[in-house]
Amino acid sequence: MKKYIFVLITIMLFFSCDSDYKPYTKGSENLIVTVVEDSLWSEIEPLISSKVEKIIRTPQRERLFYFVQVPIEKFADYQYSKNIMLITTLDDTSEVSNFVRTALPEKGIKMVESKSRNFFNEYDKIAHRQNFMVLAANNKDELKSFLNTKGGKIFDCLRNGFIQRQFDQVYYKGEQVKLSERLFDDYGFSFRIPNDFEILEENKSGRIIQLGRANPDRWITIHWENGGFNKILDIKWAWKMRYWLGQNIMGGTYIEKQYITSRLVDWNGRSVNNMRGIWGHEEKTMGGPFSTFYFYDGVTNRTYFIDITMWAPGQDKNIILRQMELILSTFYTKK
Q1: What whole-number distance in Å separates Cα of residue 270 and Cα of residue 264?
Q2: pLDDT digits (tens, 9 = 90+) for 248-290
Q3: Whole-angstrom Cα distance, residue 233 to residue 244?
Q4: What is the pLDDT of residue 138?
Q5: Range 26-37 average pLDDT
Q6: How far apart are alpha carbons 217 and 221 in whole angstroms?
Q7: Distances from the Cα of 123 to the Cαs of 75, 127, 131, 132, 277, in angstroms?
Q8: What is the pLDDT of residue 52?
């Protein structure tokens, strides 16, 4: 009980003012520590999970995020987790509900009562790099309505917190500024290169640059073609290009067409096509996920084809894959 009161006071203090000292978060990037009454959770768990627990093939099915319900008396053991969510309805009088409502400032309670807001998030509150989220409504029906119509906000919040933490983690040992500048001077493009990557191949006439690092093995391969403004950059063209790259640059690897997915992403205002999938090797027992980005750039008048490939047998791969995608999102063709 003392531990429960201590955590409650800690939350109230951090929501009312900033603290000079906070520990750093710990634990899994995927895990969402969830404090919620059992009966409420049994009703909303399928709905909220459908909005948040998205799947990526690596080739195993990995969830980007997943909920773990934690009893109120155990919350102190998880208070420094990277993702915390408190869920309640204001018509509930349970101990969990009182705990959750106390975590909300008075202004937040009034916003819930007036139906103007249901979802709250504070970053860096109990711990540095932490998403601290509160989901509240007047009753279960209002809560379900929010999840049906605006539940995607929870995933967006989790994704944004993930991005902030990963940028901190990727570049905490610094970055290779001189190498990035040299690539820009020589080729007219570059990106923020972490300290632990090195150039594996540089073929200016073949318009290929490949960087990589080990433990686990991962590669960034950049290929470009002159022109391409009128070229149709569709998924069919992309997987043919990826197959050619795998056969000629990546040691004869192939791709599994049935696992290919596509989407459009934003790189600092630039719309970029992205294709994810699974690669393998005809002769070696190797394979894993890849993620390829392709787009036309008017500054350099080129079509860029940039690929991430990784091999991490026996490991969870989706965190590393998304981390690599964030590195490439710093790609630029003008300073």
Answers
A1: 10
A2: 999 899 999 999 999 999 998 999 999 999 999 988 889 999 9
A3: 15
A4: 96
A5: 96
A6: 13
A7: 18, 8, 5, 6, 32
A8: 97
| Tokens of residue 246, six digits | 């795998």
Question: What would the two tokens of residue 234 be?
Answer: 């569709």
Contact by Cβ (8 Å): 324, 182? no
Question: How far apart (Å, rounded) are the C-alpha atoms in residues 233 and 237?
Answer: 6
- The answer to whether 190 touches 332, Cβ cutoff 8 Å, is yes
pTM above 0.85, yes or no: yes
Q: Per-residue pLDDT for 16 more than 70? A: no
Burial of 169-181, coded b for 16+ CB within 10 Å and e otherwise, reads ebeeeebbeebbe
Burial letters for 16-35: b for 16+ Cβ neighbours within 10 Å, e otherwise? eeeeeebeebeeebbbbbbb
What does the pLDDT read at residue 317?
94
Tell me the residue ranges of DSSP E strands in 168-286.
198-203, 208-213, 217-226, 253-267, 270-281
pLDDT of the residue at 104: 87
The pLDDT of residue 11 is: 53
Q: How far apart are CA 321 and CA 277, in angstroms?
A: 11
| Distance from C-alpha of 244 to C-alpha of 223, rounded to nearest angstrom | 11
Cα gap 255→67, rounded to integer Å: 32
Helix, strand, coil percentages (3-state) for the chain, rounded to 5, are 35, 35, 30
What is the mean predicted confidence (pLDDT) over 309-330? 95
- The number of angstroms, rounded, from the C-alpha of 332 to the middle of its chain's C-alpha atoms is 21
C-beta separation of 63 from 54 below 8 A: yes
pLDDT in tens, 65-90: 999 999 999 999 999 999 999 999 99
Name the burial class of residue 161, with classes exposed (0-12), middle (13-18) and buried (19+) by CB atoms within 10 angstroms of its CB.
buried
Q: List, in order of start, the domains of the chain with CATH numbers.
A: 2-169 (no CATH), 176-328 (3.40.1000.10)
Helix, coil or strand: residue 166: helix
